[in-house]
Amino acid sequence: MTPTSPWEGAPATAPRATAATTGQAGAAGPAPALLVTGASLLGERTVDLLVEDGRVARLQDAGTLSAPAGATVLDAAGQVLLPGLVDLHTHLREPGREDAETIATGSAAAAAGGYTAVLAMANTAPVTDTAEAAERVLDLGRAAGLVDVQPIGAVTKGLDGAELAELGLMRRSRAAVRVFSDDGRCVADGRVMRRALEYVRAFGGVVSQHAQDPDLAGPGACCHEGELSGRLGLPGWPAAAEASIIARDAELARLTGSRVHVAHVTTAEGLAAVRAAKARGTDLTCEVTPHHLMLTTDLLTGYDPVYKVNPPLRPEADARALREALADGTIDAVATDHAPHARHDKEHAFVDAAFGMTGLETALAVVAETMVTTGLLDWAGVARVMSTTPAAIAGLADHGRVEVGAPANLVLLDPAASTTVDRERSHSLARNTPFHGRTLTGAVRSTVLRGRLTATTPETSETPEVHPC
């Protein structure tokens, strides 16, 4: 399903999308010319691409363009060219938990992973539930100068699930907030969720829901409820906790004529609810994380807290269903749910450790391995689920396309390169990657934000270097 742009139906008083109101990073002044030669555009056609003044100026068959004087030239032979990745679901922790991540370090991790835009979740301290808080995140992202950081606004004040936050004021702020979420917590009260959907409909916004009914799990739930959780003695969440909220919110979206986005769907039951909603024409989209595509509950047998995540890892049957749903279009987007933590929050007994995994730097390689290598998606499909559709859901018109006249937000990757993940080489402050020690195929070589190189990987290194604009 092609998502409706959240700009459609916006009131005349909505702020105009400019560099000051869309989280755009970068220094003043034009970017130098950039020529990319011999790249495989979406894995389909070998091209040369010329960037001037931060935009794609020419896009022609390989070998037909020459570099202007003073231009930077990237030899991209053997590399795939995609639009810069867009992440609908990033936790940057600032303000409040700068010991786990800052907007600058999270932006560096994003650029290294091929991202040119990220949406920053609202569960900071203080919570992003006011216009001022959203503008602070916007300004910190622009100062970092590596990716466009777009704040997500909280649905409810303090994420308490009771009273709506300043949705309209956040929308009318310089941050021009379009997406609202209490992620980490479900908006469990149906009346509150209905009011939120009615409110954002007035300006074409979307509510992103952490679909997990808190009343269907006991205190301390920390993994998938099933045979393994019983054997390990760990309290779990049943799949029904996800499916029931998706079904309820689909009905509320139909009732209000509004838009709902399901964050990190994880179960076959949840997918059935998504399919049923879409079959009825409900304006509903959903995302999946890379870790839920690859990792499964069997990893919990060692009680390693690096695998503790919310929603939890599921059995292989669910992971397979997720991969198939991403391939057939039931799932609209891939989002990282990048959730960095300080060591002292993660290095505990499993039941006491913090939930979450980092993911910005490994997402593209995990999707390549689970979806492209297996033949479930081609590179055009990867561009769709990791860039074009996320940009459309979030209303980021400057992202998600490679065409003449468009801003040059690009990523080049080597599909044949293998990289062994080393948490100590991460650009994130956190080290809680579940892929440490794994060898993944597919490596980012260059990330370009409006014509400026924000990350490059030297030939002698597996680790991208980042370059603030």
From TrEMBL:
Transmembrane segments: none annotated. The active site is at residue 337. Residues 1-29 are annotated as: Disordered. Keywords: Hydrolase, Metal-binding, Pyrimidine biosynthesis, Zinc. The keyword Metal-binding applies. Substrate binds at residues 91-93, 123, 310, 341, 355-356. Pathway: Pyrimidine metabolism; UMP biosynthesis via de novo pathway; (S)-dihydroorotate from bicarbonate: step 3/3. Residues 9-29 have a biased composition (Low complexity). The keyword Ligase does not apply. Zn(2+) 1 binds at residues 89, 91, 183, 337. One of its GO terms (biological process) is 'de novo' UMP biosynthetic process. It catalyses: (S)-dihydroorotate + H2O = N-carbamoyl-L-aspartate + H(+). Residues 78-269 form the Dihydroorotase catalytic domain. One of its GO terms (molecular function) is allantoinase activity. It is an enzyme of class 3 (hydrolase). Zn(2+) 2 binds at residues 183, 210, 264. It comes from the Bacteria. GO terms for cellular component: cytoplasm. Binds 2 Zn(2+) ions per subunit. Catalyzes the reversible cyclization of carbamoyl aspartate to dihydroorotate. Belongs to the metallo-dependent hydrolases superfamily. DHOase family. Class I DHOase subfamily. This is Dihydroorotase.
